[in-house]
Amino acid sequence: MINIIALDGHTLNPGDLSWERMKALSNFEVFPRTDRKNILARAESADILIVNKLILDRPILEQLPRLKYICVSATGYNNVDLDYCREKKIPVSNVSGYSTPAVAQHVFAMLFALTSQVERYNQEVHQGVWSKQNDFAYWHQSIDEIYGKVMGLYGFGKIGKAVANVGLAFGMKVIVHRKNPEKEQIEGIKYVSLDELFSQSDVLSLHAPLNEENKGIISLLNLAKMKPTSYLINTARGGLVNELALRNALENKRIAGAALDVLSAEPPPPDHILLGLDNCIITPHQAWASLAARRRLLNEVVKNVEGFLNGKMRNVIS
């Protein structure tokens, strides 16, 4: 019987979803988390491996001669040595698009946290601050409004397009910087240069994959081009941001605020340089992780494995 083993299943399914459809396909075993030192012991009998962020590099893969297929339970797949898999004709699949609604929602949740400060005022009300006021309405700094603001998008894939649609619905103007602006023209979307993106955006939201060309693109130089009233939002990859440069910009009010769902180190060390700043909101890489999104992800993972077993490969990246 074919052995299917999930080595880090907790991220996808911490217990609020069901593995029953996977179990129905063949012999299936799931480990919530796996340390590198335990990979071989757990994976040596696997014909199929399901991994999320666990690194399967050449030294590990060379010791898994039985392995026939890898299914990545995520969109990103840089944790798998694709060159080795091509050499050994081990197909690798991923899942894309499952988190688009969830990430778009999170972008605006973070933007509203920056502009409307709902959390801060809620805390103050419960702490009795409102009760001590002389007027029926209370605020101690201007409440920002996104209508008419310019939303700049760095990257314009499925998630970028979803964010653009929401921004347009709120009456925002949307500008985009992407590698191939001639690829498609969309009503209401203006394509701009990188310099224009930084200088014109009231809200700059990052939606590009990380590569050597754009690593640290949120730099001192580019942050200096932004408006002092602007906000930065990153739900893409932590490596897009030079975190020291961002801290400097936030401390010196070079920009008004930032909201980050991703950092360069995850989880971050307790002394991470962006922790403790009043104008920096950080969430723990959860934009993608709504119940509905993870349900879609699990469904696609099952279909990928089922397709492999039936000789009808899906979502192959290598």
Strand order of the largest sheet: 8-7-6-9-10-11-12
Spatial separation of the terminal alpha carbons: 25 Å
In CATH terms, what is the fold-level topology of the largest domain?
A: Rossmann fold
- Helix-strand pattern: EHEHEHEHEHHEHEEHEHEHEEH
Shape: globular
Quick gist of this model?
With 318 residues, the protein is α/β, with parallel strands linked by helices.
What does this structure look like?
The strands form two sheets. The protein has a seven-stranded parallel β-sheet, sandwiched between helices. β10, α10 and β11 (257-260) form a beta-alpha-beta unit. Helices cover 30% and strands 14% of the residues. The chain has 318 residues and is α/β, with parallel strands linked by helices. The protein starts with a strand and ends in a 9-residue tail after the last helix. The protein contains eleven helices and twelve strands. It has two domains: 3-98 and 291-309, 3-Layer(aba) Sandwich (Rossmann fold), CATH 3.40.50; 100-282, Rossmann fold, CATH 3.40.50.720. The model has no long low-confidence stretch (mean pLDDT 96).
Helices and strands in order:
Elements: E1 3-6, H1 20-23, E2 27-30, H2 39-43, E3 48-51, H3 58-61, E4 69-72, H4 82-87, E5 92-93, H5 100-115, H6 118-126, E6 150-154, H7 158-169, E7 173-177, E8 189-191, H8 194-200, E9 203-206, H9 220-223, E10 231-234, H10 243-251, E11 257-260, E12 280-282, H11 291-309
Parallel strand pairs: 1-2, 1-3, 3-4, 4-5, 6-7, 6-9, 7-8, 9-10, 10-11, 11-12
Helix pairs in contact: 5-7
Which labels suit this protein?
318 residues; alpha/beta; Rossmann fold; 7-stranded parallel sheet; 5-stranded parallel sheet; 11 helices; 12 strands; 30% helix; globular
